[in-house]
Amino acid sequence: MSVAIENLVESVARAAVVETAGDESSVGGLRGVLENGEGLVSVRYECLLPGYVGWDWTVDVAVVDGAASVCESALLPGEQALLAPEWVPWSDRVRPGDLEPGMVLPYVADDERLVPGYTATGDEDLDRMAIYEFGLGRERVLAPEAREAVADRWYRGSHGPSASTAVASAEPCSTCAFWVPIAGSFRTLFGACANEWSPSDGRVVSVDHGCGAHSQTEAERRLSEWPGAEPVVDSGAVDALDLSESESESESEPEIAAEADEATESDVTEDEATESDVTEDEATESDVTEDEAAAE
Prior knowledge:
alpha+beta; 4-stranded antiparallel sheet; elongated; DUF3027 domain-containing protein
């Protein structure tokens, strides 16, 4: 390509880029010119727009018979451009725990975790075995691989034997009265906890899980670890005393004592009088005895 044609292509390309950008200040210097063959040339200019570091203004120019015409102009990312991650459909982006009230997951027709369920045949015994005892009778059921993955996830989770509560527990869940086995193929390995005092209440637990709320265990009775403290006498406390009552009590005490002394003296006088009467009676009896003896 001759110098004249090259200058023509660059001038036409820059005019197209400025028109696309809307402002000449957003267009930087020339980054390169690439001939694509058959008269098609791509011209790139640096983009000076904020937030578009590493992006280029690109113009495709067609050169025919010495004349240049613009095919298209666009802003494209360069090798150092900051790009958004590859778009992933919402059905593939959702993860366990993302589901909120009111949200509905999309139907996955080819879910690899599921296999076709059992279709009733009309045979009562055969259908009863498949539908009621095996838990089938649904359009789709868990595939064997999915059941193994679920069992492994539950067993290795926070309600399996390796949980801290299970390690510290004295007895496993399988011997607890609050352990309710679940139906189906998980029956021999998992159950539901029905103890409201347990941290696993309402959750699926393994048979060898455990916690401190086991129905058959008893907590060790221990004495208080606090040291015995001696009684504390509060010498700084002030007790209010009614001195008037104390004076009246002290005044009444001599009176009570005097009354007690008088009662004692009276009792002594009565006792002496009683003894005197007894002596007189004895003397009278002696006189009567002497008189009887003289008469004889």
